[in-house]
């Protein structure tokens, strides 16, 4: 959560600002489509789909109309940035080199 107003004594109120999905062999198109729709309808500001098989991240950003807009995919040789977290960047080459996602 990036917005302190969404946190109270019991925990988080409402949708998280960012959801990160790490794909595994168990993920299927139906499951991903369902989650995409739920996150979009719930008002998640940014949805990342990390795919270890293609060494890439897909990023969807919620627009003012309440719909996700797909951003250009980021592959292993690139830097990934967030629209919601100012100054955040992630070197995908380092990420995929350090973390063995095949276990997930």
The count of domains is: 1
Give the uncertain stretches in residue-range form: none
Net shape: globular
Overall strand count: 9
Report the top-level CATH class.
Answer: Alpha Beta
- Count every helix, treating DSSP H or I runs of 4 or more residues as helices: 2
SSE pattern: EEEHEEEEEEH
Alpha carbon gyration radius: 14 Å
Please name the fourth-level CATH homologous superfamily: tt1808, chain A
Quickly give the CATH architecture. Answer: Alpha-Beta Complex
Main beta-sheet strand count, sense and barrel state? 5 strands, mixed
The helix-and-strand class reads alpha+beta
Instruction: Give the terminus-to-terminus CA distance.
Output: 24 Å
CATH topology: the name is tt1808, chain A
User: Approximately how much helix is present in the residues?
Assistant: 10-25%
What percentage of the residues does DSSP assign to strands (E)?
25-35%
* Nearest-integer average pLDDT: 85
Keywords:
104 residues, alpha+beta, tt1808, chain A, five-stranded mixed sheet, two-stranded antiparallel sheet, 32% strand, globular
List the helices and strands and how they pair.
Blueprint: E1 7-8, E2 11-12, E3 18-22, H1 29-42, E4 46-51, E5 56-62, E6 68-70, E7 74-75, E8 79-81, E9 89-91, H2 92-98
Parallel strand pairs: 3-4
Antiparallel strand pairs: 1-2, 4-5, 5-6, 5-7, 8-9
